[in-house]
């Protein structure tokens, strides 16, 4: 229910605040350089627009340590204007209040002076800058523990999870279920916020800051609610994916997390529908946030992390926008050493190239920052986006390939299998979309327009998802699946691919795949056999399947005089089955992971040859001489102005990654004379570069040809 008393009180306070702001600023703001800016005053009371739908965020997050709650709002505003930001993400509450709270269960940050948050919001709104406030309810101050032990997480060993006096809370405890909502309500009552971001939402049984797994929460409220949810089951103490009780617990976690998020969504929307809800979940939210970080976890680094983050959201959803934060810190343990400037620039350009806005996360504000090396590229990219905002945020994909993604935060061999495939397609400039697996059964109308669906080492498909895949083959959509996909569903594997698993796991190191005499292979005509160092699944295939790439045994090891003997084993590395009006391809080994880990063209080229074999036209609509070190996106678009015109323009974004060598980031090498041959719907009137401002000569009608003279770090080519 809407609290009308609070709303009236809030409106009176805000009207008075707005009058003061108008008098003080007179619709203008003077920066430290004495330059006067015309500004747009944002009044959340009269502004009913769903503002984030324009998808033009240029967000800067001041991720404030406690002591930096004493920041100077005036200097913060100057910096936001200088860096072309249109959205600020700043701490509000949860772990501690960054405003003068009156709630007895909300720990007050002792460093905050006066009403810092109120001053920041009023200054930002007077200068056309939206403000999203940050909450983190995953922890609460230790002073509440003795009196309210049931608010907090309890490990199977009976211990708490303590981060320097902040104790991990329980999702089903009173603090999260009741007091978190009261904290949010207090902020909404007192501040005209534009959005709300919730950090660390849901079950946090792992301390990611220290790499410690604590175990399943044994809080009495979890035990009670799980027993009710499961009709009498006892809360498990061990994570065992084969245990039916733990499987039920996984469902319980998803249900209770979504229930909590739905309640939070309903609360803020009942106050003002145009408050955006933002977190890392995908239900009941408006802005799906992700992070481009983790530099020390995977070496060599994955060059396309921001691209993956944005692609996933933009391709899967029509009702949410993506915001992939470039995290300045190298890792949680090294927050004050930022990633290299070139890496930051690449991430930010990847964001807008794949259809989102910009998002940078800083530890504190921009004054006296511990590592300012990246500030120049942040300013550069944010200014570029501000100057060319109308070209971004309203794309329509040209991709004919969709990769089904494990989940929003993939990990393990499944992640490496998918990312190896992502990388090889990126290097070949083949456009693709990423679709979250949990939405597979809801996206049939979208999926049927692709030529190929790629399933990389995925299991746990529901009956409904299997039916969608079968139906897609009736629509002529080809399906390629790799190592162990659907191995847990023998019936589906047999029906879709004609495959029967005989042996699920075989360490194929020292085995080979025979490449010679394989008609589908074109790229590696001088290589007769490809090495393996991965899992190989032994499968029998139906007689209707075409079989390729015989597996050769590992033969004899030893001195050169003794080696040899690699003979066919009777198992095959590729099966292709004609199913309905499509082909289904099964590759029972880790083809993507091999390329992700070792980078040999032998494995990459096998998949590219398979794609050419089943859909040769995919690679004919977009041709370029750009080297693999240039990341390219090719989309249709319309001007970003809530327009309803058709997507009758094209934009090609080119990100020069030539300075990246797997570990270090150098300035990219200049690349000259990049040729394009592109199929378009109508003959263009003009072609031009956004960053250079130069007109580009072209020839042709439905297929046009042109040359980009020079590429430094980034360019966008518009075809109108």
Describe the structure.
The protein has 720 residues and is of the alpha/beta class. Among the domains are: 288-356 and 381-387, no CATH class; 399-619, Rossmann fold (3-Layer(aba) Sandwich), CATH 3.40.50; 622-719, Immunoglobulin-like (Sandwich). The strands form 8 sheets. The chain has a 9-stranded mixed β-sheet, sandwiched between helices. Strand 4 (87-94), helix 3 and strand 5 (130-136) form a beta-alpha-beta unit. Helix 4 packs parallel to helix 6. It is globular and about 75 Å long. 45% of the residues are buried.
Produce a short descriptive summary:
With 720 residues, this protein is α/β, with parallel strands linked by helices. Helix content is 28%, strand content 25%.
Largest sheet: 9 strands, mixed
Rounded mean pLDDT is: 91
Oligomer: single chain
Structural class determined from secondary elements: alpha/beta
What is Rg?
Answer: 27 Å
Number of strands: 35
Q: What would you say the CATH architecture of the domain at 399-619 is?
A: 3-Layer(aba) Sandwich
Unreliable residue stretches? 1-37
Shape designation: globular
Please describe the structure with a list of short key phrases separated by commas or semicolons:
single chain, 720 residues, alpha/beta, Rossmann fold, Immunoglobulin-like, 9-stranded mixed beta sheet, 35 strands, 28% helix, 25% strand, globular
């Amino acid at each position: 229910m809407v609290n009308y008393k609070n709303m009236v009180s809030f409106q009176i306070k805000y009207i008075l605040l707005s009058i003061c702001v108008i008098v003080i600023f007179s619709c203008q703001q003077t920066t430290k350089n004495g330059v006067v800016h015309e500004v747009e005053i944002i009044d959340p009371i009269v502004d009913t627009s769903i503002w984030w739908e324009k998808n033009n965020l240029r967000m800067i997050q001041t991720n404030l340590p406690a002591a930096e709650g004493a920041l100077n709002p005036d200097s913060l505003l100057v910096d936001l204007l200088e860096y072309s930001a249109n959205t600020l993400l700043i701490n509000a509450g949860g772990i501690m209040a960054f405003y003068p709270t009156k709630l007895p269960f909300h720990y007050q940050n002792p460093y905050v002076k006066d009403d810092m948050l109120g001053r920041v919001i009023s200054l930002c709104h007077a200068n056309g800058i939206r403000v999203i406030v940050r909450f983190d309810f995953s922890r609460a101050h230790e002073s509440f523990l003795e009196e309210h032990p049931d608010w907090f997480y309890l490990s199977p060993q009976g211990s708490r999870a303590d981060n320097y006096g902040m104790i991990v809370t329980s999702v089903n405890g009173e603090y999260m279920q009741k007091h978190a909502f009261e904290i949010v309500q207090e902020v909404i009552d007192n501040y005209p916020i534009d959005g709300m971001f919730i950090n660390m939402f849901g079950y946090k049984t792992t301390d990611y800051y220290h790499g410690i797994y604590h175990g399943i929460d044994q809080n009495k409220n979890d035990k009670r609610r799980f027993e009710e949810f499961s009709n009498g089951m006892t809360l498990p103490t061990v994570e065992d994916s084969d245990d039916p009780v733990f499987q039920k617990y996984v469902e319980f976690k998803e249900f209770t997390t979504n229930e909590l998020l739905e309640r939070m969504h309903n609360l803020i929307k009942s106050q003002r529908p145009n408050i955006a809800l933002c977190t890392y979940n995908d239900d009941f939210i408006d802005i799906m946030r992700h992070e481009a970080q983790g530099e020390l976890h995977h070496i060599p680094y994955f060059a396309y992390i921001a691209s993956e983050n944005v692609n996933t959201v933009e391709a899967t959803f029509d009702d949410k926008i993506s915001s992939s934060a470039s995290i300045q810190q190298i890792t949680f343990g090294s927050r004050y050493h930022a990633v290299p400037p070139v890496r930051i620039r690449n991430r930010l350009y990847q964001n807008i190239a794949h259809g989102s806005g910009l998002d940078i996360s800083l530890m504190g504000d921009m004054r006296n920052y511990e590592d300012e090396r990246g500030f120049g590229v942040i300013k550069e990219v944010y200014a570029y986006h501000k100057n060319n905002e109308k070209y971004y945020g309203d794309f329509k994909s040209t991709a004919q390939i969709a990769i089904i993604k494990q989940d929003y935060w993939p990990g393990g061999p499944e992640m490496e299998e998918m990312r190896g495939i992502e990388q090889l397609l990126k290097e070949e400039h083949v456009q693709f979309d990423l679709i979250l697996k949990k939405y597979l059964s809801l996206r049939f109308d979208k999926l049927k327009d692709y030529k190929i669906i790629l399933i990389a080492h995925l299991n746990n498909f529901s009956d409904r998802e299997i039916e969608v895949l079968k139906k897609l083959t009736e629509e002529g959509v080809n399906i390629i699946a790799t190592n162990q996909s659907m191995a847990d569903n023998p019936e589906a594997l047999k029906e879709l691919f004609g495959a029967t698993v005989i042996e699920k796991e075989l360490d194929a190191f020292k085995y080979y795949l025979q490449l010679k005499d394989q008609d589908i292979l074109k790229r590696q005509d001088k290589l007769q056999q490809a090495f393996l160092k991965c899992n190989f699944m032994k499968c029998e295939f139906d007689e209707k399947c075409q079989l390729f790439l015989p597996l050769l045994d590992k033969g004899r090891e030893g001195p050169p005089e003794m080696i040899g003997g690699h003979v066919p084993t009777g198992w095959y590395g590729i099966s292709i089955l004609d199913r309905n009006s499509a082909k289904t391809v099964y590759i029972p080994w880790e083809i993507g992971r091999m390329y992700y880990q070792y980078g040999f063209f032998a494995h990459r080229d096998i998949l590219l040859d398979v794609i050419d074999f089943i859909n040769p036209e995919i690679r004919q609509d977009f041709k370029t001489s750009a080297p693999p070190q240039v990341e390219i996106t090719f989309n249709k678009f319309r001007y970003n102005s809530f327009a309803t015109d058709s997507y009758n323009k094209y934009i090609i974004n080119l990100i020069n990654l030539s300075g990246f060598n797997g570990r270090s980031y150098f300035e990219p090498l200049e690349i000259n004379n990049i040729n394009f041959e592109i199929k378009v719907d109508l003959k263009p009137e003009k072609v031009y570069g956004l960053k250079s401002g130069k007109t580009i000569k072209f020839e042709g009608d439905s297929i046009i040809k042109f040359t980009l003279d020079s590429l430094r770090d980034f360019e966008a080519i518009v075809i109108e």
